[in-house]
Amino acid sequence: MAKATARFVCQSCAAATTKWSGRCETCGEWNTITEEKPLSQGPSGKTLGKSRGRAVALTDLSAKEAPPPRTACGMDEFDRVLGGGLVPSSAVLMAGDPGIGKSTLLLQAAAAFANAGLKVVYISGEEASAQIRLRAQRLNLAEAPVKLATETNLRDILTTLDETRPDLAIIDSIQTMWADNVDSTPGSVSQVRAAAHELTTFAKRTGSSIMMVGHVTKEGQLAGPRVVEHMVDTVLYFEGERGHQFRILRSVKNRFGPTDEIGVFEMTGGGLSEVANPSALFLSERGQPAPGSVVFAGVEGTRPLLVELQALVSPSPHSQPRRSVVGWDGSRLAMILAVLESRCGIPFAGLDVYLNVAGGMRVSEPAADLAVAAALLSAREDAALPPDTVVFGEISLSGSLRPVGQSENRLKEAQKLGFSKAILPQGGKATASDGMALSRMPDLTTFVGEVFGAG
Ligand code: TYD
Ligand code: MG
Protein backbone atom coordinates (compact mmCIF):
# COMPACT_ATOMS: atom_id res chain seq x y z
CA MET A 1 0.00 0.00 0.00
CA ALA A 2 1.32 3.43 -0.91
CA LYS A 3 2.35 5.48 2.11
CA ALA A 4 0.22 8.61 2.49
CA THR A 5 2.46 11.55 1.57
CA ALA A 6 2.53 14.59 3.79
CA ARG A 7 0.64 17.53 2.37
CA PHE A 8 1.78 21.10 2.67
CA VAL A 9 -1.11 23.53 2.72
CA CYS A 10 -1.08 27.29 2.28
CA GLN A 11 -2.92 28.73 5.26
CA SER A 12 -3.94 31.76 3.27
CA CYS A 13 -5.47 30.25 0.11
CA ALA A 14 -5.60 26.53 1.00
CA ALA A 15 -3.59 25.41 -2.05
CA ALA A 16 -1.90 22.05 -1.39
CA THR A 17 1.59 21.04 -2.51
CA THR A 18 3.85 18.08 -1.86
CA LYS A 19 6.87 20.23 -0.96
CA TRP A 20 7.36 23.03 1.52
CA SER A 21 8.35 26.39 0.16
CA GLY A 22 8.70 29.86 1.62
CA ARG A 23 6.23 31.42 -0.77
CA CYS A 24 2.90 30.05 -1.93
CA GLU A 25 2.96 29.71 -5.73
CA THR A 26 -0.79 30.12 -5.94
CA CYS A 27 -1.47 33.28 -3.94
CA GLY A 28 2.06 34.65 -3.59
CA GLU A 29 1.90 34.99 0.22
CA TRP A 30 5.08 34.40 2.20
CA ASN A 31 5.44 31.99 5.14
CA THR A 32 1.94 30.65 4.90
CA ILE A 33 2.70 27.03 4.01
CA THR A 34 2.54 24.51 6.83
CA GLU A 35 2.52 20.74 6.94
CA GLU A 36 -0.84 19.08 7.48
CA LYS A 37 -0.86 15.33 8.06
CA PRO A 38 -3.70 13.47 6.37
CA LEU A 39 -6.47 12.68 8.85
CA SER A 40 -6.18 8.90 8.44
CA GLN A 41 -2.70 9.12 9.87
CA GLY A 42 -3.55 11.54 12.63
CA PRO A 43 -1.00 13.59 14.53
CA SER A 44 -0.05 10.59 16.68
CA GLY A 45 -0.11 8.11 13.81
CA LYS A 46 -3.34 6.45 15.03
CA THR A 47 -6.45 6.20 12.89
CA LEU A 48 -9.58 8.06 13.95
CA GLY A 49 -11.89 5.12 13.23
CA LYS A 50 -10.70 2.70 15.95
CA SER A 51 -11.35 4.64 19.13
CA ARG A 52 -14.78 6.02 19.95
CA GLY A 53 -15.35 9.66 20.77
CA ARG A 54 -17.68 11.08 23.38
CA ALA A 55 -21.32 11.62 22.35
CA VAL A 56 -22.19 15.30 22.48
CA ALA A 57 -25.56 16.47 23.80
CA LEU A 58 -28.00 17.64 21.13
CA THR A 59 -30.57 20.33 21.85
CA ASP A 60 -33.68 21.59 20.11
CA LEU A 61 -33.56 24.49 17.71
CA SER A 62 -36.79 25.71 19.26
CA ALA A 63 -35.30 26.12 22.76
CA LYS A 64 -35.94 29.68 23.92
CA GLU A 65 -32.83 31.82 23.96
CA ALA A 66 -32.72 35.25 25.54
CA PRO A 67 -31.14 37.94 23.36
CA PRO A 68 -27.53 38.62 24.42
CA PRO A 69 -27.16 41.31 27.09
CA ARG A 70 -25.66 44.44 25.58
CA THR A 71 -23.97 47.50 26.90
CA ALA A 72 -24.41 50.72 24.98
CA CYS A 73 -21.62 53.26 25.29
CA GLY A 74 -23.79 56.24 24.45
CA MET A 75 -22.05 57.05 21.16
CA ASP A 76 -25.11 56.19 19.08
CA GLU A 77 -23.26 55.84 15.80
CA PHE A 78 -20.88 53.32 17.37
CA ASP A 79 -23.56 51.37 19.26
CA ARG A 80 -25.73 50.98 16.20
CA VAL A 81 -22.90 49.59 14.08
CA LEU A 82 -22.22 47.01 16.80
CA GLY A 83 -25.87 45.98 16.51
CA GLY A 84 -27.14 47.89 19.55
CA GLY A 85 -24.19 47.78 21.92
CA LEU A 86 -21.34 45.55 23.00
CA VAL A 87 -22.06 41.85 23.62
CA PRO A 88 -20.01 40.10 26.36
CA SER A 89 -17.47 37.54 25.10
CA SER A 90 -17.46 39.03 21.65
CA ALA A 91 -14.36 39.56 19.54
CA VAL A 92 -14.44 42.63 17.32
CA LEU A 93 -11.94 43.53 14.60
CA MET A 94 -11.68 47.19 13.59
CA ALA A 95 -9.85 47.44 10.30
CA GLY A 96 -8.77 50.51 8.39
CA ASP A 97 -5.95 52.38 6.69
CA PRO A 98 -3.14 53.69 8.88
CA GLY A 99 -3.89 57.22 10.08
CA ILE A 100 -7.60 57.10 9.40
CA GLY A 101 -8.49 57.46 13.11
CA LYS A 102 -8.87 53.95 14.53
CA SER A 103 -6.90 54.66 17.70
CA THR A 104 -8.79 57.91 18.21
CA LEU A 105 -12.19 56.25 17.82
CA LEU A 106 -11.31 53.32 20.08
CA LEU A 107 -9.92 55.61 22.78
CA GLN A 108 -13.19 57.54 22.68
CA ALA A 109 -15.16 54.28 22.75
CA ALA A 110 -13.00 53.01 25.63
CA ALA A 111 -13.80 56.13 27.64
CA ALA A 112 -17.49 55.92 26.77
CA PHE A 113 -17.76 52.25 27.79
CA ALA A 114 -15.81 52.96 31.00
CA ASN A 115 -18.18 55.81 31.82
CA ALA A 116 -21.09 53.45 31.13
CA GLY A 117 -19.79 51.20 33.92
CA LEU A 118 -17.59 48.65 32.16
CA LYS A 119 -14.09 47.78 33.29
CA VAL A 120 -11.96 48.77 30.29
CA VAL A 121 -8.30 48.06 29.54
CA TYR A 122 -6.53 49.71 26.59
CA ILE A 123 -3.34 47.99 25.47
CA SER A 124 -1.25 49.66 22.82
CA GLY A 125 1.65 48.13 21.00
CA GLU A 126 2.17 51.25 18.93
CA GLU A 127 2.17 54.25 21.23
CA ALA A 128 3.65 54.93 24.64
CA SER A 129 1.23 55.40 27.54
CA ALA A 130 2.31 59.05 27.83
CA GLN A 131 1.32 59.61 24.20
CA ILE A 132 -2.10 58.04 24.79
CA ARG A 133 -2.61 60.14 27.93
CA LEU A 134 -1.78 63.28 25.96
CA ARG A 135 -4.30 62.33 23.31
CA ALA A 136 -6.90 61.62 26.00
CA GLN A 137 -6.30 65.10 27.45
CA ARG A 138 -6.76 66.65 24.05
CA LEU A 139 -9.99 64.71 23.60
CA ASN A 140 -11.17 65.73 27.07
CA LEU A 141 -11.30 62.11 28.21
CA ALA A 142 -8.57 62.17 30.83
CA GLU A 143 -11.05 61.58 33.67
CA ALA A 144 -12.47 58.36 32.24
CA PRO A 145 -11.59 55.26 34.32
CA VAL A 146 -9.68 53.45 31.56
CA LYS A 147 -6.58 51.39 32.42
CA LEU A 148 -3.62 51.75 30.04
CA ALA A 149 -0.60 49.65 29.16
CA THR A 150 2.01 49.56 26.43
CA GLU A 151 2.93 45.98 25.61
CA THR A 152 3.45 43.71 22.62
CA ASN A 153 4.18 40.37 24.29
CA LEU A 154 1.01 38.33 23.91
CA ARG A 155 1.82 36.00 26.81
CA ASP A 156 2.19 38.97 29.21
CA ILE A 157 -0.98 40.56 27.87
CA LEU A 158 -3.01 37.39 28.34
CA THR A 159 -1.70 36.98 31.90
CA THR A 160 -2.57 40.60 32.65
CA LEU A 161 -6.05 40.22 31.21
CA ASP A 162 -6.56 36.94 33.07
CA GLU A 163 -5.73 38.64 36.35
CA THR A 164 -7.71 41.83 35.78
CA ARG A 165 -10.66 40.24 33.93
CA PRO A 166 -11.85 43.44 32.20
CA ASP A 167 -15.26 43.65 30.52
CA LEU A 168 -13.57 45.10 27.47
CA ALA A 169 -9.95 44.91 26.34
CA ILE A 170 -8.77 47.00 23.39
CA ILE A 171 -5.70 45.76 21.53
CA ASP A 172 -4.04 48.36 19.29
CA SER A 173 -2.95 46.78 16.97
CA ILE A 174 -3.04 43.07 16.21
CA GLN A 175 -0.07 43.52 13.83
CA THR A 176 2.23 44.64 16.64
CA MET A 177 1.44 41.67 18.90
CA TRP A 178 4.08 39.04 19.32
CA ALA A 179 3.51 35.45 20.43
CA ASP A 180 6.80 33.93 21.66
CA ASN A 181 5.74 30.40 20.70
CA VAL A 182 5.48 31.31 17.02
CA ASP A 183 8.73 31.49 15.15
CA SER A 184 8.28 34.54 12.95
CA THR A 185 8.37 38.33 13.20
CA PRO A 186 5.49 40.47 14.50
CA GLY A 187 3.10 41.46 11.74
CA SER A 188 3.68 38.23 9.82
CA VAL A 189 0.73 36.10 8.84
CA SER A 190 1.44 33.40 11.43
CA GLN A 191 1.92 35.93 14.23
CA VAL A 192 -1.26 37.83 13.42
CA ARG A 193 -3.21 34.61 13.17
CA ALA A 194 -1.81 33.27 16.44
CA ALA A 195 -2.48 36.51 18.31
CA ALA A 196 -6.03 36.80 16.97
CA HIS A 197 -6.71 33.17 17.86
CA GLU A 198 -5.38 33.50 21.42
CA LEU A 199 -7.32 36.70 22.05
CA THR A 200 -10.56 35.38 20.58
CA THR A 201 -10.26 32.19 22.61
CA PHE A 202 -9.62 34.28 25.69
CA ALA A 203 -12.81 36.26 25.03
CA LYS A 204 -14.88 33.08 24.65
CA ARG A 205 -13.37 31.51 27.77
CA THR A 206 -13.66 34.42 30.17
CA GLY A 207 -16.56 36.56 29.00
CA SER A 208 -14.37 39.60 28.35
CA SER A 209 -14.94 41.36 25.04
CA ILE A 210 -11.95 42.07 22.86
CA MET A 211 -11.62 44.80 20.26
CA MET A 212 -8.59 44.54 18.01
CA VAL A 213 -7.27 47.10 15.59
CA GLY A 214 -6.13 45.73 12.23
CA HIS A 215 -4.22 47.78 9.69
CA VAL A 216 -5.06 47.44 6.03
CA THR A 217 -2.30 47.30 3.44
CA LYS A 218 -2.00 49.48 0.34
CA GLU A 219 -3.80 46.89 -1.75
CA GLY A 220 -6.81 47.14 0.54
CA GLN A 221 -6.12 43.76 2.15
CA LEU A 222 -6.10 43.32 5.87
CA ALA A 223 -2.41 42.84 6.61
CA GLY A 224 -2.36 39.24 7.67
CA PRO A 225 -4.66 36.57 6.48
CA ARG A 226 -8.36 36.90 5.92
CA VAL A 227 -8.60 34.12 8.45
CA VAL A 228 -8.71 36.74 11.23
CA GLU A 229 -12.02 37.91 9.82
CA HIS A 230 -13.38 34.37 10.13
CA MET A 231 -12.24 34.07 13.74
CA VAL A 232 -13.90 37.14 15.16
CA ASP A 233 -17.62 37.78 15.66
CA THR A 234 -17.72 41.25 14.22
CA VAL A 235 -15.66 42.99 11.55
CA LEU A 236 -15.88 46.76 11.30
CA TYR A 237 -14.20 48.82 8.60
CA PHE A 238 -13.30 52.39 9.36
CA GLU A 239 -13.07 54.27 6.09
CA GLY A 240 -12.74 57.73 4.70
CA GLU A 241 -10.81 59.77 2.22
CA ARG A 242 -7.67 61.48 3.52
CA GLY A 243 -8.69 64.92 2.27
CA HIS A 244 -12.17 64.74 3.76
CA GLN A 245 -13.12 64.98 7.38
CA PHE A 246 -15.92 62.38 7.16
CA ARG A 247 -15.26 58.90 8.48
CA ILE A 248 -17.56 55.94 8.05
CA LEU A 249 -17.66 52.96 10.35
CA ARG A 250 -19.14 50.04 8.45
CA SER A 251 -20.01 46.60 9.77
CA VAL A 252 -19.15 43.98 7.15
CA LYS A 253 -19.69 40.98 9.40
CA ASN A 254 -21.66 40.77 12.61
CA ARG A 255 -22.76 37.61 14.39
CA PHE A 256 -24.81 39.73 16.79
CA GLY A 257 -26.48 42.22 14.48
CA PRO A 258 -27.18 43.37 10.96
CA THR A 259 -24.35 44.00 8.50
CA ASP A 260 -24.06 46.94 6.13
CA GLU A 261 -24.92 49.22 9.01
CA ILE A 262 -22.92 52.42 9.00
CA GLY A 263 -22.00 55.06 11.54
CA VAL A 264 -20.88 58.47 10.35
CA PHE A 265 -18.27 60.56 12.14
CA GLU A 266 -16.48 63.80 11.47
CA MET A 267 -12.77 64.20 12.33
CA THR A 268 -12.36 67.45 14.22
CA GLY A 269 -9.58 68.98 16.27
CA GLY A 270 -11.22 67.43 19.33
CA GLY A 271 -11.46 63.91 17.95
CA LEU A 272 -14.30 62.18 16.14
CA SER A 273 -17.74 63.66 16.56
CA GLU A 274 -20.90 61.81 15.65
CA VAL A 275 -22.94 62.92 12.68
CA ALA A 276 -26.59 62.23 13.40
CA ASN A 277 -27.89 63.49 10.07
CA PRO A 278 -25.36 62.43 7.44
CA SER A 279 -27.52 63.29 4.43
CA ALA A 280 -27.41 66.95 5.34
CA LEU A 281 -23.65 66.67 5.72
CA PHE A 282 -23.04 64.99 2.38
CA LEU A 283 -25.20 67.52 0.58
CA SER A 284 -24.06 70.57 2.52
CA GLU A 285 -21.54 71.70 -0.05
CA ARG A 286 -24.07 71.52 -2.82
CA GLY A 287 -24.77 74.76 -4.60
CA GLN A 288 -27.10 75.42 -7.53
CA PRO A 289 -28.04 72.42 -9.69
CA ALA A 290 -25.17 71.86 -12.10
CA PRO A 291 -24.78 69.62 -15.15
CA GLY A 292 -23.36 66.26 -14.14
CA SER A 293 -24.52 66.49 -10.54
CA VAL A 294 -27.34 64.24 -9.33
CA VAL A 295 -28.60 63.42 -5.84
CA PHE A 296 -29.00 59.70 -5.21
CA ALA A 297 -31.42 58.59 -2.49
CA GLY A 298 -29.55 55.63 -1.03
CA VAL A 299 -29.88 53.34 1.96
CA GLU A 300 -27.00 52.11 4.09
CA GLY A 301 -28.04 49.31 6.42
CA THR A 302 -31.19 50.59 8.07
CA ARG A 303 -30.72 54.28 7.35
CA PRO A 304 -31.49 56.31 4.28
CA LEU A 305 -28.63 58.46 3.05
CA LEU A 306 -28.67 61.06 0.30
CA VAL A 307 -25.41 61.49 -1.58
CA GLU A 308 -24.39 63.60 -4.54
CA LEU A 309 -22.99 61.86 -7.62
CA GLN A 310 -20.86 63.95 -9.96
CA ALA A 311 -19.94 63.07 -13.52
CA LEU A 312 -17.70 64.74 -16.05
CA VAL A 313 -17.71 63.75 -19.72
CA SER A 314 -15.21 65.34 -22.09
CA PRO A 315 -13.69 64.58 -25.52
CA SER A 316 -10.74 62.29 -25.10
CA PRO A 317 -7.30 63.02 -26.54
CA HIS A 318 -6.41 59.34 -26.13
CA SER A 319 -7.19 56.45 -28.42
CA GLN A 320 -8.38 54.58 -25.32
CA PRO A 321 -10.72 56.98 -23.47
CA ARG A 322 -10.41 57.18 -19.69
CA ARG A 323 -12.95 55.68 -17.32
CA SER A 324 -12.24 56.92 -13.83
CA VAL A 325 -14.42 56.18 -10.79
CA VAL A 326 -14.16 57.24 -7.15
CA GLY A 327 -16.60 55.77 -4.62
CA TRP A 328 -18.45 53.44 -6.98
CA ASP A 329 -17.78 50.19 -8.81
CA GLY A 330 -15.81 50.54 -12.06
CA SER A 331 -17.30 47.52 -13.78
CA ARG A 332 -20.80 48.68 -12.89
CA LEU A 333 -19.99 51.98 -14.64
CA ALA A 334 -18.88 50.08 -17.73
CA MET A 335 -22.16 48.19 -17.69
CA ILE A 336 -24.24 51.35 -17.50
CA LEU A 337 -22.27 52.96 -20.34
CA ALA A 338 -22.85 49.83 -22.42
CA VAL A 339 -26.59 49.86 -21.72
CA LEU A 340 -26.83 53.57 -22.59
CA GLU A 341 -24.98 52.89 -25.80
CA SER A 342 -26.74 49.78 -27.06
CA ARG A 343 -30.28 50.26 -25.67
CA CYS A 344 -30.63 54.03 -25.94
CA GLY A 345 -28.20 54.73 -28.78
CA ILE A 346 -26.13 57.22 -26.81
CA PRO A 347 -22.45 56.60 -27.55
CA PHE A 348 -19.63 57.37 -25.15
CA ALA A 349 -16.88 56.30 -27.53
CA GLY A 350 -14.14 58.92 -27.80
CA LEU A 351 -15.24 60.52 -24.51
CA ASP A 352 -13.42 60.47 -21.19
CA VAL A 353 -15.79 59.66 -18.33
CA TYR A 354 -15.17 60.59 -14.70
CA LEU A 355 -17.56 59.65 -11.89
CA ASN A 356 -17.20 60.74 -8.29
CA VAL A 357 -19.28 60.24 -5.15
CA ALA A 358 -19.07 63.52 -3.22
CA GLY A 359 -17.80 63.77 0.32
CA GLY A 360 -15.58 60.69 0.22
CA MET A 361 -18.58 58.38 0.51
CA ARG A 362 -18.55 54.92 -1.09
CA VAL A 363 -21.77 53.64 -2.68
CA SER A 364 -22.24 49.95 -3.43
CA GLU A 365 -25.99 49.65 -4.00
CA PRO A 366 -27.24 48.71 -7.50
CA ALA A 367 -30.04 51.16 -6.69
CA ALA A 368 -27.61 53.92 -7.65
CA ASP A 369 -27.59 52.76 -11.32
CA LEU A 370 -30.24 55.21 -12.48
CA ALA A 371 -28.64 58.10 -10.62
CA VAL A 372 -25.29 57.24 -12.23
CA ALA A 373 -26.92 57.13 -15.67
CA ALA A 374 -28.61 60.46 -14.96
CA ALA A 375 -25.31 62.05 -13.93
CA LEU A 376 -23.55 60.71 -17.04
CA LEU A 377 -26.30 61.95 -19.36
CA SER A 378 -26.55 65.28 -17.61
CA ALA A 379 -22.79 65.77 -18.01
CA ARG A 380 -22.83 64.61 -21.63
CA GLU A 381 -25.79 66.80 -22.63
CA ASP A 382 -24.56 69.66 -20.43
CA ALA A 383 -28.04 69.93 -18.96
CA ALA A 384 -28.81 70.01 -15.24
CA LEU A 385 -31.60 67.90 -13.80
CA PRO A 386 -34.62 69.83 -12.47
CA PRO A 387 -33.74 71.26 -9.04
CA ASP A 388 -34.84 69.47 -5.83
CA THR A 389 -34.85 66.08 -7.54
CA VAL A 390 -33.60 62.76 -6.19
CA VAL A 391 -33.02 59.68 -8.35
CA PHE A 392 -32.83 55.95 -7.61
CA GLY A 393 -33.43 52.63 -9.40
CA GLU A 394 -31.63 49.60 -10.72
CA ILE A 395 -30.90 49.25 -14.45
CA SER A 396 -31.04 45.81 -16.04
CA LEU A 397 -29.02 44.79 -19.09
CA SER A 398 -32.16 45.00 -21.23
CA GLY A 399 -32.48 48.67 -20.40
CA SER A 400 -35.56 48.26 -18.22
CA LEU A 401 -35.70 49.72 -14.72
CA ARG A 402 -36.29 47.58 -11.65
CA PRO A 403 -37.78 48.82 -8.42
CA VAL A 404 -35.49 48.72 -5.40
CA GLY A 405 -36.05 48.03 -1.70
CA GLN A 406 -36.91 50.62 0.95
CA SER A 407 -38.26 53.12 -1.60
CA GLU A 408 -40.56 54.59 1.03
CA ASN A 409 -37.62 55.20 3.32
CA ARG A 410 -35.63 56.90 0.57
CA LEU A 411 -38.51 59.19 -0.36
CA LYS A 412 -39.14 60.18 3.25
CA GLU A 413 -35.51 61.14 3.76
CA ALA A 414 -35.52 63.16 0.52
CA GLN A 415 -38.64 64.99 1.58
CA LYS A 416 -37.20 65.69 5.01
CA LEU A 417 -34.24 67.40 3.36
CA GLY A 418 -36.36 69.62 1.17
CA PHE A 419 -36.50 67.64 -2.08
CA SER A 420 -39.83 67.74 -3.89
CA LYS A 421 -39.34 65.47 -6.92
CA ALA A 422 -38.18 61.91 -7.34
CA ILE A 423 -37.37 59.88 -10.43
CA LEU A 424 -37.76 56.16 -9.81
CA PRO A 425 -38.67 52.90 -11.58
CA GLN A 426 -42.24 51.86 -12.23
CA GLY A 427 -43.74 49.26 -9.91
CA GLY A 428 -42.57 48.71 -6.37
CA LYS A 429 -44.36 49.66 -3.21
CA ALA A 430 -43.58 53.36 -2.89
CA THR A 431 -46.66 55.54 -2.73
CA ALA A 432 -46.73 59.25 -3.38
CA SER A 433 -46.92 61.40 -0.30
CA ASP A 434 -48.00 65.04 -0.03
CA GLY A 435 -45.52 67.47 -1.43
CA MET A 436 -43.47 64.85 -3.28
CA ALA A 437 -43.95 64.47 -7.05
CA LEU A 438 -42.95 61.04 -8.36
CA SER A 439 -41.93 60.38 -11.98
CA ARG A 440 -42.05 56.65 -12.55
CA MET A 441 -40.11 55.32 -15.51
CA PRO A 442 -40.56 51.88 -17.11
CA ASP A 443 -37.18 51.87 -18.86
CA LEU A 444 -34.05 53.84 -19.54
CA THR A 445 -35.15 55.01 -23.00
CA THR A 446 -38.28 56.64 -21.53
CA PHE A 447 -36.13 58.23 -18.85
CA VAL A 448 -33.73 59.68 -21.43
CA GLY A 449 -36.61 60.99 -23.55
CA GLU A 450 -38.57 62.56 -20.70
CA VAL A 451 -35.72 64.06 -18.72
CA PHE A 452 -33.29 65.08 -21.44
CA GLY A 453 -35.61 65.21 -24.43
CA ALA A 454 -33.11 63.13 -26.40
CA GLY A 455 -32.93 59.54 -27.52
P1 TYD B 1 -5.17 57.83 14.65
O1 TYD B 1 -6.32 57.53 15.54
O2 TYD B 1 -3.82 57.81 15.27
O3 TYD B 1 -5.16 56.85 13.38
P2 TYD B 1 -4.92 55.26 13.29
O4 TYD B 1 -4.93 54.71 14.65
O5 TYD B 1 -6.04 54.75 12.41
O6 TYD B 1 -3.59 55.07 12.61
O7 TYD B 1 -5.48 59.26 14.01
C1 TYD B 1 -4.62 59.77 13.08
C2 TYD B 1 -5.01 61.11 12.53
O8 TYD B 1 -6.11 61.74 13.12
C3 TYD B 1 -3.83 62.02 12.71
O9 TYD B 1 -3.34 62.31 11.44
C4 TYD B 1 -4.35 63.24 13.39
C5 TYD B 1 -5.84 63.12 13.30
N1 TYD B 1 -6.52 63.64 14.51
C6 TYD B 1 -7.32 64.76 14.43
O10 TYD B 1 -7.48 65.36 13.37
N2 TYD B 1 -7.95 65.20 15.56
C7 TYD B 1 -7.81 64.58 16.77
O11 TYD B 1 -8.40 65.02 17.77
C8 TYD B 1 -6.97 63.42 16.84
C9 TYD B 1 -6.75 62.70 18.14
C10 TYD B 1 -6.35 62.98 15.69
MG1 MG C 1 -3.29 53.93 15.71
UniProtKB/TrEMBL annotation:
Keywords: ATP-binding, DNA damage, DNA repair, DNA-binding, Hydrolase, Metal-binding, Nucleotide-binding, Stress response, Zinc, Zinc-finger. It comes from the Bacteria. Gene3D superfamilies: 3.30.230.10, P-loop containing nucleotide triphosphate hydrolases. A motif (RadA KNRFG motif) lies at residues 253-257. GO terms for molecular function: ATP binding; ATP-dependent DNA damage sensor activity; damaged DNA binding; hydrolase activity; zinc ion binding. SMART domains: AAA (SM00382). Residues 67-216 form the RecA family profile domain. It holds the Pfam family Zn_ribbon_LapB. ATP binds at G96, D97, P98, G99, I100, G101, K102, S103. One of its GO terms (cellular component) is cytosol. Residues 352-455 are annotated as: Lon-protease-like. Signal peptide: none annotated. Plays a role in repairing double-strand DNA breaks, probably involving stabilizing or processing branched DNA or blocked replication forks. NCBIfam families: sms. Belongs to the RecA family. RadA subfamily. The middle region has homology to RecA with ATPase motifs including the RadA KNRFG motif, while the C-terminus is homologous to Lon protease. HAMAP family: RadA_bact. This is DNA repair protein RadA. The lineage of its organism: Bacteria, Pseudomonadati, Pseudomonadota, Alphaproteobacteria, Rhodobacterales. The gene is radA.
